[in-house]
Amino acid sequence: MSGGDGIPREPRSDAGAGDVHARTFGSGAREARGERSAEPRPEFRSYYGRPVLKPPVWTWEVPAYLFTGGLSAGSALLAAGADLTGRPALRRAGRLGGFGALVASTGLLIADLGRPERFHHMLRVAKPSSPMSVGTWILVAYGPGSGLAAVAELLPAPVRAGLPGRLLCRAARPAGLSAAALAPGLAAYTAVLLSQTAVPAWHDARRQLPFLFTGSAAASAAGLGMLLAPPAEAGPARRLGAIGAAAEVVAARLIERRPGLVPQAYTTGRARLLRLASEGLTLAGALATVSVARRSRPAAAAAGLALLAGSALQRFGTFEAGVASTRDPAYVVVPQRERLNTADAGHTGRIGREVP
C-alpha cells in the first residue's frame, strides 16, 4: 500500500493480524459450507527434506519375531484343543511346533536387543503402562507351560513307564492349558506394541492390528498343524485355518480402506508387494483347506505351507509399511494439517451459531 506522497509503506501490524485472522477463519467457514477456497493449498515440507520422524532401527529379526510369537501362541491353543478331544498327532505337532517357535522367538528378541543381559534387565521391572514390559512378562509366564508340554511329547516309551515319566505326562495337560490361556495375550501384545509408537502407519491402524495379528497367528498355527498331522486328525486345524485366514484378510482390507493418507503406506512400494503375496497365499491356503485338504495329505501339506508363508509375509509387509511411513514427511504433516483444518472449521461453526 502507499500513502498520499506515493511512497510504499508496510501495512499496520494490527491490520495485518486482522487480515490473517479473517483469511484463516473465512477459509475454514467456506470449507465447512462445502465451498472451494480461491487460495492455493499450502504444500508440506520438512527441514532440509529430512524425515520428521526417525525411522525404526529394527532389522529383520523384529518382523520374524512377530511371526514366530504368533505361531507359538496359535499352536498352543490348537494343541490344547487336540489334547482335550483325543487327537494325539495334532497335539504333538502343536506342542512341539509351539515350543520350537517360542525358542526361535526368544532368540530373535535377544538378537534384536543386542546383548542377552538386556532381556534379563527387562524382568527387573513390571510396568502395566508399557506394552513391552507386559509382553515380556506374558512371554515369561507362557514359556514354562509350553516347554513342559513339549518335553512330555519327547519322552521315549521306557521313560514314560517310570514314575518320573508318568508324573511328567500327567503334568503335561495342565501345563499345556496354562500356555493356551496366555496364548491370546502373546499373539496380540505385539500389535499393541507397534500401535503405541509414533510410527504413523502403525498408530493409525491401532484398532485393526490386534485382529490382523491374531488372525495371522491362527492361520499360521493351523498351517503347521495341517503340515504335520494326518488329515484324519487335522479337522480342528482346518477350521482354525479358515477362520484365521478370513480374519487376517478382512483386517488387512480394513486397514487399506481407512480414510486419509496413512493407509497408502500399506498399498505402495515394497509393503504392497509383500501384502499382495501374503493375501494370495492366504486365500489359496484357505480355499484348499476347505476343499482338497480334507482328503489328500499332500494337498493338506501344501495348504499348510501356503498359510504359513502368507502369515510370515503379512508381518513383514506390516513392518515395511511402518518404516516407509516414517521416511516420508507427508504421512506426518498432512494428517496433522487435516486435524487442524477440521478443528478450525468446527470452531468457526460454533462462532457462527453464537453470533446473531
From TrEMBL:
Residues 1-41 are annotated as: Disordered. InterPro entries: Electron_transfer_protein, NrfD-like. Keywords: Cell membrane, Membrane, Transmembrane, Transmembrane helix. It comes from the Bacteria. Its main location: membrane. Residues 30-41 have a biased composition (Basic and acidic residues). Signal peptide: none annotated. The chain crosses the membrane at residues 64-84, 96-114, 134-155, 176-199, 211-229. It is found in: Cell membrane. It holds the Pfam family NrfD. It is a multi-pass membrane protein. Belongs to the NrfD family. This is NrfD/PsrC family molybdoenzyme membrane anchor subunit.
